[in-house]
Design brief:
This protein is mostly helical. The protein is built from 7 helices and no strands. The protein has a single domain, classed as Methane Monooxygenase Hydroxylase, Chain G, domain 1, CATH 1.20.58.220. InterPro entries: DUF47, PhoU-like_sf, Put_Phosphate_transp_reg.
Length: about 220
């Protein structure tokens, strides 16, 4: 980050901490989903509560960073790109937290024979967000590595979409389930899938931002 922020170490530290929140949120999400699928309700709710607090911390950090970027008139030529990356990555974390909250509120049924498939779906969606964070860090520290991490985001998103399609085909192929039941389960698969899609959308923006820094 030295190339972009010079001697402003506090901004560097806050951006790092903000990105750490996204990684931490993904870990809590994966644990929460596993506990939900295993029927460990108390542990699931504990991870959800931790995730909600973490999301609020990330929001506070983002607002503080945005204020400093404006009041200290830092990197005016790249400020819009950095602000956009912060806002869109925060939206990814919001999607992670909102999805876990929806599990708590709506309590979708766990189909035992599809438990592993749904867990893999969640893990791959979070993997996309983790590579997204790596790509953002590289934007500040090593532009040459941005592209490789973006490719990993694309790969993880494609795998997430594949697993989501497989899950949805499984549930809609079951004659014993009501259509309303199938649609409810599909909704949660799509919510998880959206995490990876949002991470990929951010990386499309990041790719352009990185090119602008090369110019």
């Amino acid at each position: 980050m030295i190339q972009l922020f010079g001697s402003h170490k506090q901004i560097e530290a806050e951006i790092d901490e903000f990105l750490d929140q996204i990684i931490g949120g993904g870990l809590l999400f994966k644990k929460g989903i596993k506990f939900y699928l295993d029927g460990r309700e108390e542990e699931f709710e504990q991870r959800l509560n931790e995730l909600i607090l973490l999301e609020k911390r990330a929001d506070d950090l983002r607002r503080d960073i945005e204020t400093k970027l404006y009041t200290k008139t830092l990197i005016p030529e790249f400020r819009g790109d950095v602000l956009g990356l912060l806002e869109h990555s925060d939206a990814v974390l919001n999607q992670i937290a909102d999805t876990l909250l929806e599990f708590s509120v709506e309590r979708p049924e766990t189909l035992d024979d599809l438990r592993d498939l749904k867990h893999e779906l969640a893990k791959n969606a979070i993997k996309a967000s983790e590579f997204m964070v790596k790509a953002i860090r590289c934007y500040f520290r090593d532009l040459s590595a941005v592209r490789d991490n973006i490719k990993q985001v694309h790969f993880s998103r494609e795998e997430t979409n594949r697993l989501s399609e497989k899950y949805k085909r499984e549930i809609f192929g079951r004659g014993e389930l009501r259509l309303s039941h199938k649609m409810h389960l599909r909704y949660f698969a799509r919510s998880i899938e959206n995490i990876a899609d949002d991470a990929e959308d951010l990386c499309d923006r990041l790719a352009i931002a990185a090119i602008k820094r090369y110019i």
